[in-house]
Amino acid sequence: MRILTIAPFYRFFIKDFTEALSKHVDKIDVLVHHNYLSELAPYMPFSYFRHVEKFSRKNLVDLTGLPPNVRVHVVSTVYFTPDGRNTKLGDKLAKLFDRYIKRHKIEFDLIHAHFTWPSGYAGVKVAREYGVPSVITIHENRDWFLKEYKSRNEKIYWAWRNADALIRVNKVDIPLLREFNRNVFHVPNGFNPRRLPFVDKGMARNHLGIPKDTKVLFGLGNLIERKGFHYLIDAMSLVAKERRDVVCFIGGSGPLRNTLQNQINKLGLQEHVKLLGFVPDDQLALWMNAADLFVLPSLSEGNPTVMFEALGVGLPFVGTAVGGVPEIITSEDYGLLCPPADPECLAEKILIALEKEWDREKIRKYAEQFTWENIARQIIRVCSEVTR
């Protein structure tokens, strides 16, 4: 089987999944769209362009360790309206990809697109042009999904109706998608165990300069409203009243960093909540292994990769019951859940979790089913079904 993957980037979970999938197919070509304007972002004085800068060519793809049967193509164009609001971008990319495929003589038996817009829409259009099946994996968070489900957005609806199969990363949305397409499959996200190898907890703490007697919470995500870190900070103001030995470290960058730091300062939590900024992979392995709990207070998710990464090192999960999270944290042996936007409940669960004796080896064993190697096998079954 020869797969053409269409995705907004080739990094993080898409890279890890593709490289796992490459072991089961003849070849994979990956098309990533790129906006030339992102290259100008570093020279623009406005704060908005710090966000745009993340989509520059060097930040879109990570070619380290690329398997010999995977080729990544960055296909460049120019547009001024951001992807999510650009109603013409899907058709623009479909034409751009068609020309690129012909020029470079790319051959494929199936198109697998990640995210509905614009990649999924463009993928289905291109697949119809070449007479091959198309599959869309819908990774988007549940707020986005429900909004689009109700929106009567004909381009989104068209993509869902005309794909040969849809894959949703949580189970809860499967019945809604079957209103558009009878070939709907549930395949969760996963994690790459090689990305976060086991590190002795004491050694990890020594590297990070964290005392052994400190109780460490670790959270990771973009510093945006949807990730709910402002609720975690509120929860920490309650936790700190009960225990003075707890420190919450939050990794990630984003537009709310200053707002969150001001909240920390206002609540006098400088010793109990610390913003780390972007955490590279070598440091991420240390943080995951040094922590006592992983905390994710999101308001909406599809099925967060960081949850699987935490479980993969045996780290108990405390977070909100959103998207596919309660489909994974099915037992209190793996973590504790609370409603979103409820700092009182989140604080209570953190305090309970800090007192609980966790079997970290049991958590790690449970997580093995979600390695990208196992997820790739599930995707291959879907692809084989639609190419019969």
CATH class of the largest domain: Alpha Beta
Please describe the biggest sheet, giving its number of strands, its sense, and whether it closes into a barrel.
7 strands, parallel
The share of residues in extended strands comes to: 15-25%
- pLDDT averaged residue by residue: 96
Topology, number of strands: 13
Element-level helix/strand string: EHEHHEHEHEHHEHEHEHEHEHEHEHEHHH
By CATH, the architecture of the largest domain is named 3-Layer(aba) Sandwich
Protein name: Glycosyltransferase
Domain Glycosyl transferase family: 205-369
Enzyme class: transferase
Domain Glycosyltransferase subfamily 4-like N-terminal: 71-194
Brief account:
Helices cover 42% and strands 18% of the residues. It has helices at residues 12-21, 48-52, 57-60, 89-104, 116-130, 142-151, 154-162, 174-177, 201-208, 229-242, 257-266, 281-290, 305-312, 325-328, 343-355, 360-367, 372-386, and strands at residues 2-7, 27-35, 70-77, 110-114, 134-138, 165-168, 184-186, 215-220, 246-251, 273-277, 293-296, 317-320, 335-338.
Overview of the structural elements:
The chain is globular, with a radius of gyration of 21 Å. The mean pLDDT is 96. The chain is 42% helix and 18% strand. The longest helix is centred in the first third of the chain and has 16 residues, at 89-104. The protein has two domains: 2-190 and 371-386, 3-Layer(aba) Sandwich (Rossmann fold), CATH 3.40.50; 201-369, Rossmann fold (3-Layer(aba) Sandwich). It has 388 residues and is α/β, with parallel strands linked by helices. The strands form two sheets. It has a seven-stranded parallel beta sheet, with helices on both faces.
